Amino acid sequence: MVALLLLVAHGLWYGAVLPVAHSFPLFGVRRVLTTEPLVALTFDDGPQSPYTEQVLQVLDRFGVKATFFEIGQQIDREPALARSVVQRGHELGNHSYSHRNLILRWPGEIAAEILETDRRLRAAGAEGPIALRPPLGKRWFGLPYWLWRSGRTLAMWEVDSGDYDPANSVADLVQGVLQRVRPGSIVLFHDGSFKTRQPRDRTVAALGEIIPTLQARGYRLVTLGELLRSGKPSGGGPWESHPLEPGPNPAKP
Q: Is 190 one of the annotated active-site residues of the chain?
């Protein structure tokens, strides 16, 4: 109740009340309710050499399209790499400009983080609606409301690969994803690491096992946009988020 009151109070800064209806959950889409065997692979924190290119090569090898949630400052560093993602048939999403925590930010700050990145994504070739994934998955108060009023999709995930945690081996990543994927899942990976510059070679190696296994099970791996068009978006509450520090191994009890 306190969180709801704060959300509404924060929203009053925009001079409007909450809409009575919207096609996407307020606190983000975690999966899509669909009868089709579709799964969306998503990648955060890029573009970053050499890992984005390595991920693209794996996707190309298996004929898979995915969605890359990119950081504006990363695009500034490697604009050609962002363009390459689009040129190879993949989808771009917005992961903010600076990867700052957007909780309790003023509307102008939120808008700047999102719109500055939108401009860079458009320059890289992004077409159609651009979904947003908040930094660290944190999305209380002003951010969901801003997106709600703007008609934007807040994209979360159902399956976290755990590739941000160096304690997880390639086998852990593979097992953790394969055990939890189901039709309509949105899966979280990282092709960059922004401030820490953590290697993503485990992600690249794990994808080489995860993708063909899912394809052998009959799944078709698609962009988030295609997955959203296949069924009804399903969300969760405002509390789930990405750990600030390496979390528990998702493949272990």
A: yes
